[in-house]
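Researcher: Let's do a round of design. I'm pasting the structure tokens now; please hold your answer until I've finished.
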């Protein structure tokens, strides 16, 4: 089933066309990898999926982005609720300079997603468990989040997203600041998360795309060159450019 359907998406920064005629279906409870060389529009694309680009002045978008069949750019869209449903994890972990507990509780507090303190504590625990961090932090939830390792901070950011009960999680190069062991933990976590969430990951690391994703799209100069099941993209690509890119002869 399609969780997100993008139809003929164009995106401009001023006069500069950054995305051209992108149409793609993001499958529910699957991991979709977005790959391609630097500057080809990967970040711009995922940021269109929860209207993160809205905040950049001078930008313009054409086309449709349907979440469960509803156009998120249509009138009447509650953008705050959209960003709750479609959460985002960034390249560099960005916890708030607060305790672990307060980081995870932030969204539920702002959105009023709980009835009492006990319920909030439960959400925090469940979110930290869901992000495979609970066992490492349960003895001191008041610890400063910034004292965690970078890998733990990134899992904390994932817990913060999970805490507001999203449906889709966008991950923009979530491992690029992490060492190989921390990266592996995030990749393992993604496998677990896909049982409950639809995940879109931007990565310039093709091995990572091959390891974690079910579907892969190759972007090139703002266009979607090829999109299909990851195994096919990496073993039997249809386009010459895809083959050249995945074998390291292009890009
Ligand atoms: P990628 O994620 O593949 O590296 P981006 O989506 O970041 O690519 O960028 C796509 C193109 O849009 C690039 O040419 C980049 O320079 C341009 N771009 C990205 N962000 C902005 C911005 N805020 N203002 C102007 N141009 C931008």
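Researcher: That's everything. Go ahead.
Model: Designed sequence:
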């Amino acid at each position: 089933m399609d969780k997100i359907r993008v139809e003929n998406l164009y995106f401009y920064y001023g006069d500069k066309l950054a995305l051209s005629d992108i149409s793609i279906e993001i499958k529910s409870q699957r991991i979709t990898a977005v790959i391609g060389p630097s500057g080809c529009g990967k970040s711009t694309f995922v940021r269109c999926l929860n209207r993160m680009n809205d905040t950049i002045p001078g930008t313009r978008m054409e086309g449709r982005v349907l979440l469960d069949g509803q156009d998120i750019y249509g009138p009447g869209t509650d953008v705050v609720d959209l960003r709750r449903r479609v959460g985002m994890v960034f390249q560099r972990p960005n916890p708030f300079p607060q305790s672990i507990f307060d980081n995870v509780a932030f969204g539920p507090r702002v959105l009023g997603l709980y009835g009492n303190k006990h319920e909030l504590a439960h959400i925090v625990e469940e979110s930290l468990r869901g992000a495979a961090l609970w066992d490492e932090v349960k003895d001191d939830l008041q610890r400063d989040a910034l004292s965690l390792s970078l890998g733990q901070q990134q899992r904390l950011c994932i817990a913060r997203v999970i805490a507001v009960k999203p449906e889709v999680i966008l991950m923009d190069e979530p491992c690029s600041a992490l060492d190989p062991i921390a990266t592996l933990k995030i990749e393992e976590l993604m496998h677990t998360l896909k049982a409950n969430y639809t995940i879109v990951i931007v990565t310039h690391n093709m091995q990572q795309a091959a390891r974690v994703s079910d579907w892969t799209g190759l972007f090139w100069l703002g266009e979607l060159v090829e999109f299909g099941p990851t195994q096919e993209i990496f073993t039997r690509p249809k386009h010459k450019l895809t083959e050249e890119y995945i074998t390291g002869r292009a890009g």
